[in-house]
Amino acid sequence: KYMSGNELRERFLKFFEERGHMRLPSASLIPQDDPTLLLIGAGMAPFKPFFTGKMKPPSPRVTTCQKCVRTGDIENVGRTARHHTYFEMLGDFSFGDYFKKEIIPWSWEFLTKELELPGDKLYITIHTSDDEAYQIWHDVVGIPDERIIRLEDNFWEIGSGPCGPCSEIHIDLGPERGCGKPDCGPACDCGRFLELWNLVFTQFNQNEDGTYTPLEHKNIDTGAGLERIASVLQGKPSNFETDLIFPIIEYACKESGVAYNASPKSDVSLKVIADHARSLTFMIGDGILPSNLGRGYILRRVLRRAVRHGRLLGIDHEFLGGAVDVVVSMYGDHYPEIREKQDYIKKVIHMEESSFLKTLKSGCDMLDVEITKLQEAGKTELDGDVAFKLSDTFGFPKELTAEILEEHGMTLDEKGFAEALEVQRKMARDARDDKTGRPVLYNDRDLNVAGLKVDEAAHAGKVMKIYP
Ligand code: ATP
Ligand code: MG
Ligand code: MG
Ligand code: MG
């Protein structure tokens, strides 16, 4: 049954509201009081203190649609049908309230009754030791034995904090989407079996030293990918074709003059741009600024990557601000913060994008000179030192150097590059931040140019707050 992304989000939240859950808005992408995380990457992350009992939740049952960023998946973006850096995670949470026998049948009811997904295409993975989950899936829900798979890997944790065994729900998209290997199943990464929903039965706490303690109260923490379920309901070959992302791809097509499906390589670039445009909009909307450290560095990398892929498509002008407008038009109703900060987000992006474009331009010029020198000397390998200087001093990405060299039938001395990097790291190791002892999280000059101010008081407490 076709369903828009917005309707799916609403249906999920309403389903759990009807089952006694309090609907809460998404938390910021910046973790609050959690030095173990750089960014929120799961629906449960903002609720850690509720699970451990450190803080009292506003309700023992909560449901959210949480903004998430997972940079660990950045290399997958555009290469798998299902991974983004930014995505939305639907979730329901029980803080010492209900447990497996409630959530397992509910999740089944939501997918098969509410969304009308075919039950016989759904596969369940459970933790090897989890007989309780097996019994409920098998006896209560009625899933046949061959569609319940026990895996050692079905144990969920992020850093220290609450964790436990999990059950995951996958949908079989059909043999034509798979690798065809005889042992292909829900644990296979080939794309035939799409993981939709992870039900975590939080019953342990992972301590700072890596040991586990059983929690006094058992909890439920679930996470379902909005874009993934939408791709199934909308009958699309990947998340990128759903109404949650495709308009941004269309924008990138228009800017570059490259059609979607023109080639596998250009499709990857279009998908990367669409993905990164969402990440940038929401990250800056939550107060992250480009810098050389921490979250700011992630943001900078994501932005430069988007520009690079734009360049691969032949875009040589600033285009990310326009992508922000598309993202805001798609998401501004549900996430009013990005609409309120639309101009500010575009200003920050303009600063960074224009300066990176200048870097690219001068880097290309410098590299041209080096390439001519190599040609004159009859060599085909660029010194690691030179490539490192381009990247470290001039901010010209190493991957780009390698790419341009390749176009000339040349290579980069990777070993020399690694050595130069190590020398530089050693030097930096003892180096202080700046004289104030304040971490260098942003570039003051750039902020002044943009007419922005940093809230120093908040900064001292390590919470980044930047006011336009
Ligand atoms: P996968 O195995 O596909 O990488 P995961 O096991 O890492 O997913 P979980 O940590 O279990 O994912 O997160 C819960 C749910 O969030 C997943 O079942 C999926 O629907 C969604 N999800 C996870 N990572 C991403 C991502 N990078 N992009 C989009 N959705 C995601
Ligand atoms: Mg993953
Ligand atoms: Mg998985
Ligand atoms: Mg999972």
Describe the model.
With 468 residues, the protein is an alpha+beta fold. It folds into 2 domains: 5-237, Bira Bifunctional Protein, Domain 2 (BirA Bifunctional Protein, domain 2, 2-Layer Sandwich); 245-379 and 432-467, no CATH class. It has 16 helices and 13 strands. It has helices at 5-17, 48-52, 100-114, 131-141, 226-233, 246-256, 264-285, 294-312, 320-331, 336-340, 342-377, 384-392, 398-407, 414-430, 444-450, 456-460, and strands spanning 22-23, 61-69, 86-94, 122-127, 148-151, 155-156, 161-172, 193-206, 212-225, 381-382, 411-412, 453-454, 466-467. The strands form 3 sheets. Strands 1, 2, 3, 4, 5, 6, 7, 8 and 9 form a 9-stranded mixed β-sheet that branches. A two-stranded parallel ribbon has the order 10-11. Strand 6 (155-156) and strand 7 (161-172) form a beta hairpin. Helix 7 packs across helix 9 (320-331). The longest helix is centred in the C-terminal third of the chain and has 36 residues, at 342-377. The two termini are 44 Å apart. The structure holds adenosine-5'-triphosphate and magnesium ion (3 copies). Adenosine-5'-triphosphate (ATP) binds next to strand 3, strand 8, strand 9 and helix 5.
